[in-house]
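Sequence only, no structure available. Ideas?
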Amino acid sequence: MSNAASPRLASVDALRGLAVAAMLLVNNPGDWGHVYAPLEHAAWQGCTPTDLIFPFFLFIVGVSLALSLGPRVEAGMPSAPLARGVLERAMRIVVLGLVLHVLAWWLMNKPEFRLLGVLQRIGLCFALTGLVLLYCRARTQWLLLLALLGLHAAMLLGGGTLDKAGSLAARVDTAVLGRLAYEWDGTLAFDPEGIVSTLGALGTCLLGLRAGEMLRRGRLMQLCLLGAAAVLLGYVLTPWLPFNKQLWTSSFVLWTGGWACLTLALAHHLVDKRGWPAMGRSFGVNAIAAYAGAWMSTVLLEGLGVMAPLYGWAFGGIQRAWGPEQASLAFALVFVSVWAFIVRLLDRRGVYIKV
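Reply:
I predicted one. Tokens follow.
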């Protein structure tokens, strides 16, 4: 089975790893009241560099599926066992996400349990994109992507306003998730990894699937043209459908996916062809494990009451000398550095934790 897979590309591992490292950086500021401004997400509409991180990761999920499953499909391997493998791995990712949320709810005394989240979204998009690859030809995949983007846009534009309270996404999350959503005020629920926005996230993963197929076949010019066209179209759509990560609008899919295509083409040229160092590779080959481990370490520090005194002791001097935002940034950088050391050690010893 493994003999039919494409050779592993260091550029893809590097991009996946850099995305995970960036997730750790923005998710662990130490002091949420004084986050270093460039690491902030857009408050609602708009797209900051931080808003590119999760779409880039989901895009790479699609790319990785094209590289790993695409050759096996072409080799004539039966779809059923491949689909079973995809669904089993997706289920493990979703269950891991639920376990992490249980730990946070329990150790941090959260008033409500959150059902959905980052890993749950990754697992769902992994499963659906894998099935599309296995059972749909290339032309059908393109049609599904276009139909999904059109449907998602029509649902948002025809289902209410594009503000949080009036959006279709909030109404669906309220009806289906209720108090299990990320935000719940007793009457209205909203989750940035909610039900409606997951349609847009799936579009990002499908775009990565098609980009990965171009990469696998060495069609870098097509990949660059796809990236440029997606960036341009995403920007053109913004007067009607603004960039919005929490709604994961179709313009946001195209804008972020287009930049991801261009970044993938550049990384492949520099790393795989010209031999540049694959920065971030150690994170990339243990991506889910690093994300889950970092989550658990943060929850333990918070739940045991260690985070606040540790932060004050280690970074209080920076806060007094340069300000609270700089102290928050310093904590985030140290946190990522610690995990960079851990994954580097695992990589050197050939330890790869697969979920």
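The chain has a mean pLDDT of 95.
Hope that gets you unstuck.
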